[in-house]
Structures are given as structure tokens and as C-alpha cells.
Write the C-alpha cells for this entry.
Amino acid sequence: MKTLGQVRSGVVVTHFRTGRDIADFPDIAHELRELPDDVQDGWLYDEVTGECGPVQVGPVEIQAALVVEAQRRLDAFALARGYDDIKSLVTYADDPDQTFAAEGLIGKQKRSAMWAALRDYKDLVLAGEAPMPQSIDDIPGLPDLTW
């Protein structure tokens, strides 16, 4: 038995165990590769070396994902009160209407608290004093984004 995988654009899209050869699958033989038994769908396959392994996610990719998620959460907070996004909400902080001004100020405080918490945690990670977070929920001190 061996593991064959269908590879498209360098990514394993499906794999299966079989006693058959690649030539026995003429319709997809051009996409099939013999792969390690522990392969997973979504792994990368290097056509030059024949090596196969999981996608490596580094600090840059994790940081980018955290920024996107923080922004998504801030925008959702603003949307809950009918604002287009957090940028729109904070423009009301100096509004003459007291309700809008109060909501804008809350938005401004929550936005600042979110980015400060992410910055402070990043500084801890870079100093070797905290582990690299795998999700935004791993970061302590994030503001409560409820009204």
C-alpha cells in the first residue's frame, strides 16, 4: 500500500491509500504524486525536491491575521450600534449630539485599548517574555467590545 495525492499548484488537494500505481488513474495521473503516509490535505508539495509538508505559518502571517481579526471585531462593535465601521463611529466623539458624542468616545476608547493591547503583547513576544499567540483570544487585556 502507498499513499497517492492529487497535487494542484503545489498543494495536496486530496490523498488516498492504494495498492495501485499512478498509471492506473489515467484521468488524473498528471496531478498524482506518491506522498508520505502521514500527508494531510492542504500540505504543500515541492515539485523540484518532491518534499511535502504542512504550511509553515510564521510571525508575520500570525501578526497579519491578528490585525485583521482586531479590525473585524472593532467594526462589528460599531455595526452593533448602526455605524458603518469603527472609523465612522469615532468621528462622532466630538459631535454636538450628546448620544452620538458619548458613543463616539466609547468607540475611541475601545479602539485605543484594542491596539494598545496588541502593541503591548507584541512587545512582550519580541522580548521573549510571552509566547507567540495563535489567535487573538490568546492575548490578555483586550477590551470588552459590548455596549
